Amino acid sequence: MILPSVLALGAHMLTPIADSVPTFNVEPVCRGIAIQGGTSYRDITVAKAKQDCIDSERETREQVVKQWSTFSAADRRHCIDEATMGGDSSYTELLTCLEMARDVRKLGSEAEAPDVPTVAPRQ
Fold first, then answer.
1. What is the C-alpha to C-alpha distance for residues 95 and 62, in angstroms, rounded to an integer?
2. DSSP readout, 7-36?
3. Is 1 inside any structural domain?
4. CA–CA separation, 79 vs 93, rounded Å?
5. Which of 20, 102, 86, 94 is nearest to 57 (CA)?
6. Residue 107 domain-assigned?
7. How far is CA 40 from the centre of its chain?
8. What is the pLDDT of residues 87-105, one digit of tens each?
9. 49-100: per-residue pLDDT in tens?
10. Comparing C-alpha atoms, which of 82, 72, 77, 73 is closest to residue 106?
11. What is the pTM of this model?
């Protein structure tokens, strides 16, 4: 049956290639974080907390930009999908996902490496 193959190919072609760092609107997630910490919408600390969050997200995006090429394309695609799933997106979530995926790959490759003796052989 050819139809499932065609559908799979079509779905693959629609998957975005993660060649560049995505641009997220972090204002909604920062607003939500700030409101959680305030007592009301008019609480002046909410505005400060929101701006602090936006500044932090900007710095995190800069980290993502610097490290982007060090992450695999598969991990970039997966983490973009995960960070944008369900609405509000953040660079903190994206970077955390990318770092965890990288670290899991590293642990996996270390586990597959043969054990190297730590003691020099006797002569």
1. 10
2. HHHHHHHHSPP--S------HHHHHHHHHH
3. no
4. 8
5. 94
6. yes
7. 31
8. 899 999 999 999 999 999 8
9. 999 999 999 999 999 999 999 999 999 999 999 999 988 999 999 999 999 9
10. 72
11. 0.71
